[in-house]
Amino acid sequence: MTQKSQSLVDHIVALRTILLRCIVAMLIAFPVGMAVAWRCTWWLMDWVFQSDAQQLYYLKMVDAFAIQLKCALLLSLVMACPYILWQFWMFVAPGLREQERRMVKWWVGWAALLFALGVALCVGVVMPLVVKFFFAFQSERLTALPNLSDVMGMTLWVSLAFGVMFQFPVVLLMLVRFGVVRTATLARARPYIIVGIFIVAALLTPPDIASQLALAFPSWGLFELTLLLARRREKARSLSPTQAPPRR
């Protein structure tokens, strides 16, 4: 076996070890997630529904247990997330220069913060508006019977959509940093990007205008802020007298 093949095998073995450690960390956190799953579920439902619904229903016998299991898995992933990130950082850090390490730490930190802000905006503001919109169709002859599985599924999906959309600034800064796209190109394409933001927001959110605008306008604002920061970074890099040494 050549040295290159041996190095590849060593990396695969190390990656397998890291994945096993991450799985073990989630399994350790899983009982805690199961213990608090219903408390978190009811807190989330109370906040989302507020005074619009006093009772939730499940239509299949396995729905309640499935919700508890999914919530426990999600909570165990959140609890184990710092350890998982640390494990993957220990895997990739030896192959990075000091400047690249600082860059990765910056990107990961901002990506995590923006994802958390997106989820908080969704749960704190958007989902109560969505519930009010759908409950507005009630009348003397129409009564809403909210299904626990559907409500939790929609809440998790829309929260994920907000978190992913809020990664837009990190992706743009990475593209500008590595020279894939220039800020002048982004500025010229601004009208198309804004239209694309509104289209994606309409596709990822429920069919009410409030949630669509609540996702589209912050994403638009983050794009404009990112473009401003990218211009300053691009200008500072063009004025820098030194360049990073090539990798050997």
Descriptive account of the structure:
The protein is built from eight helices and no strands. The chain is mainly α. The protein has two domains: 1-95, no CATH class; 97-241, no CATH class. The longest helix has 47 residues, at 3-49. The model is unreliable at 243-248 (pLDDT under 50).
What percent of the residues sit in helical stretches (DSSP H or I)?
over 70%
- Sheet with the most strands, sense and barrel status: none
Q: Work out the helix count.
A: 8
Count the strands?
Answer: 0
Mean pLDDT: 83
Integer tally of domains: 2
**Shape call:** flat
Spatial extent as radius of gyration:
23 Å
Query: What share of residues are in beta strands?
Result: under 5%
State the distance separating the first and last CA atoms.
24 Å
Helix-strand sequence? HHHHHHHH
Structure class: mainly alpha
